[in-house]
Design brief:
Elements: E1 2-7, H1 9-12, H2 23-34, E2 41-46, H3 53-63, E3 68-72, H4 76-79, E4 82-85, H5 86-90, H6 92-110, E5 126-129, H7 134-150, E6 154-158, H8 178-196, E7 199-201, H9 203-207, H10 224-245, H11 247-253
Parallel strand pairs: 1-2, 1-3, 3-6, 6-7
Antiparallel strand pairs: 4-5
Helix pairs in contact: 2-10, 3-7, 7-8, 10-11
């Protein structure tokens, strides 16, 4: 069972929550325990912006066929500017290969020893996207779901969850509009789910089970408690898809 997860820092970890403690890692580890006879493989790819969603999906399906695709639909794209690598947005797999090659070349040219540099010449093609309009965001997400389903993969949509009212951050839209846009993105995910029959991972419902402790202080990033809550939702959603894919075999184990 190959699971492709397209997401951002919540998937990879950050200061305060390392990658091993993210909701994705918790969910996958628990699934391995629940379904010991299944070989569950996780493939993470960074989704820098919805504009690059179709390119990532086309390349991933070209190189490896995922059974399940989880798309993280965050509200940040709708409330603040986003810095992206334009080359990665157009051809992510080519950029990943070229970046690895450039690191080796640069290390030889400058005689660098030790861990390879994270930034290379190919990482300098940067640009900023303004906050995305909700109708455009919805169109891009639905196109991504259509690509996955046309290739035979099942899709889970992870919404942005809830807004942290205690946040101290600068946004590209007035602060009063930010929680409204969070709610609007959640509703957008539900509309796409209804039209495409893609399952929703209810991050909002999970995070609403607790108070402000689900966030890092004055931040929209989730704390360990937040990750634990969403991990249970993701685990159950993925488990239902695994059972659906092979109900006879799984049923004999339950």
């Amino acid at each position: 069972m190959r699971i492709l997860f397209l997401g951002q820092c919540l998937v990879y970890g950050y200061d305060g929550v390392d990658q091993g403690s993210t909701f994705v890692n918790h969910a996958i580890n628990n699934l391995a325990t629940r379904f010991p006879d299944h070989d569950i493989t996780l493939d993470r790819k960074h989704l820098y912006h919805p504009n690059g969603l179709k390119a990532i999906l086309r390349h991933r399906f070209l190189f490896s066929q995922p059974d399940i695709v989880v798309i993280s639909v965050i509200a940040s794209f709708a409330v603040q500017r986003t810095r992206v690598n334009l080359l990665y947005e157009m051809a992510p797999e080519i950029v990943d290969t070229a970046r690895s090659f450039m690191r080796k070349i640069e290390a030889r040219v400058i005689g660098y020893r030790g861990a390879p540099k994270q930034q290379t010449a190919i990482d300098k093609f940067l640009a900023w996207h303004p906050p995305i309009a909700l109708d455009e965001y919805e169109r891009l997400v639905e196109e991504g779901v259509d690509i996955c389903q046309s290739k035979g993969a099942r899709v889970l949509l992870l919404g942005p969850g809830r807004f942290n009212e205690d946040i101290k951050a600068d946004f590209s839209v007035p602060l009063a509009e930010v929680p409204i846009l969070f709610d609007s993105v959640n509703e957008m995910v539900r509309r796409v789910s209804k039209r495409t029959k893609a399952q929703i991972v209810d991050a909002r419902g999970a995070l609403c089970q607790r108070g402000g402790e689900v966030f890092l202080p004055q931040n929209i990033r989730w704390s360990h408690q937040g990750h634990d809550l969403v991990a249970r939702e993701l685990e159950n959603a993925l488990a239902s898809e695994i059972i659906r894919s092979n109900p006879v075999t799984i049923g004999s184990l339950l």
